[in-house]
Target: EndoU domain-containing protein
Amino acid sequence: MQCIILVSAIFVLVFGIPVPSPTRDVWVGPNCHMCEVILNNVRYEYHNNFTGVSVDQLRLSLYQQCDANLNGFTDMERLLIEFVKENCCVDCLRLKHSRAKMRSLLVLFPILVALVWCQKIPNFTVSNAELLALAKKLRQVDVHRARPDQIMLNYQKHTVTRDDSDSAPAKLFSRVDSSLLRKPSYELYLNLMDNFNRQTGVTEPRVSQTEEKAEVGKFLDHVLATKPMQELYNWFKAKGHPIATSPQNFRFWIGQLWFSHYSRALGRPDTSGFEHVFIGEAKNGEISGLHNWLRFYVLENNRTENFDYKGFTVKRFNIMGALKFTWDGLLKRVGSILIGTTPEYDMALYTMCFLSRRGRETCDVELDGCPLQITSFEIMQQNKVYIGSIYPTAGRLTDECRAQNR
Ligand SMILES: *[C@@H]1O[C@H](CO)[C@@H](O)[C@H](O)[C@H]1NC(C)=O
Ligand SMILES: *[C@@H]1O[C@H](CO)[C@@H](O)[C@H](O)[C@H]1NC(C)=O
Ligand SMILES: *[C@@H]1O[C@H](CO)[C@@H](O)[C@H](O)[C@H]1NC(C)=O
Model:
């Protein structure tokens, strides 16, 4: 809201052009984020290298991006975006391209400042009890999760993190009911799995951007319509959080937080929150991330991935484990996963925790009576917030946890 007013005010000052007067309901914070994402997508299309790219090419890319991102917006929002498209984005890119004109710089600078300001996710105050209550609710509505009889685990021996000894000759997942994997959200998640370069420092995606975009779009469309994500949306909306002012905003932010590419190495857009948490990556000779049971299961069952489970450091029945493994020669000393949950549940729970308790505070939740802590870290790049990592840690093994699980 404030940032839109600021951006508008800057336009008025700089161009002397009247801006359509914003109404409270429409000009909310995250919409102004759109311009930056559009710019980022264009930069990304050229891998941030504008050598030999003409202004006309840039303009075309920009317009394509704007159009692609305009779907689902109201007429008022379109009007603003069109305005930004005409007056801001083109100038930004032209400047990037030719490094020209002081006037452009003067225009660009305050706009960037405003965008940076828009970009900040506001402080969000929520009690531990509220987080716990929503976590329980998310579990309750996660109707497509695996039933206890659909997954058979074989934890084998306890291990420690200091070496790479193998305390588990067999696989962790002895059996997973294949009908489970035909449920839409698992299937759409499986479709995403070949989109990534495991190695950090290698620009994403591995497949064409068209394929990536289409698959991510389908995944988001589906997941956002599921009960866990709907619960999450309603919860944020009731709390007046700016990511949930409208379903379109929410989709935009979920996409931005989880799927937009940023850099872990060499300054290349080589990663995303989703890649880290749901896929796993190789960094500095070790495996980093990989906190999803289905991904673990898929890797374990693909010979060419050369994946080897090596024992657990902590286990909580059939709901959560902290595990040691190697993946194509690289070790993960300990990585924890929730077991049998749907991707939409993990995404909802982790998003709740990320937006409420990231950094040093942990997000204390519960899964079937077992206390869990969710730790998450943000990565700020070019003043944008990205999901760096999110993972669960087992809390105390309580009587209730024992009683509810066997
Ligand atoms: C940018 O692109 C040009 C031409 O396509 C190429 O020669 C140059 O090496 C690239 N620079 C970087 C840093 O990748
Ligand atoms: C938001 O939280 C941070 C860290 O706790 C604090 O430094 C900052 O002042 C807060 N900002 C507002 C506007 O409350
Ligand atoms: C196994 O993994 C390889 C390498 O990632 C991939 O090319 C192949 O499609 C996978 N096989 C199956 C059956 O998914």
